[in-house]
Design goal:
single chain, 115 residues, Glutaredoxin, four-stranded mixed β-sheet
């Protein structure tokens, strides 16, 4: 499994502790240093069965600075993926990627399906 996080994020820390407590093996990746690519994001969005907008970190400073709440309504999915791949701080985290599932954000009840 691939665990994508921003190490200073408290939610990411909770998710990481959850994985460690359950002895789930994962590869750790810092979203700022190694931002997801357009291809990765496209694949993960399909695997997650979630709307692309769920991949945006709506509580982040960058999201607010760019006034994305209004701009996203006018953007195509390709433009959104391009934007997400340009800056890891725009991407909601943590993200966990397994062979057949992608989870965005940390909801313990959803993550239980990983064990």
């Amino acid at each position: 499994m691939l665990f994508i996080e921003y190490p200073k994020c408290s939610t990411c820390k909770k998710a990481k502790k959850y994985l460690d407590d359950k002895n789930i093996k994962y590869e750790d990746r810092n979203i700022v240093i190694d931002n997801p690519t357009k291809d990765e994001l496209s694949s993960w969005i399909k695997m997650s069965s979630k709307d692309i907008n769920k991949f945006f970190n709506t509580s982040g400073l960058k999201y607010r600075e760019l006034n994305l709440k209004d701009k996203l309504k006018e953007m195509s999915d390709l433009e959104k993926i391009e934007l997400l791949s340009s800056d890891g701080m725009l991407v909601k985290r943590p993200i966990i990627v397994s062979n057949d599932k992608v989870l965005v954000g940390f909801k313990e009840s959803e993550w239980e399906s990983l064990v």
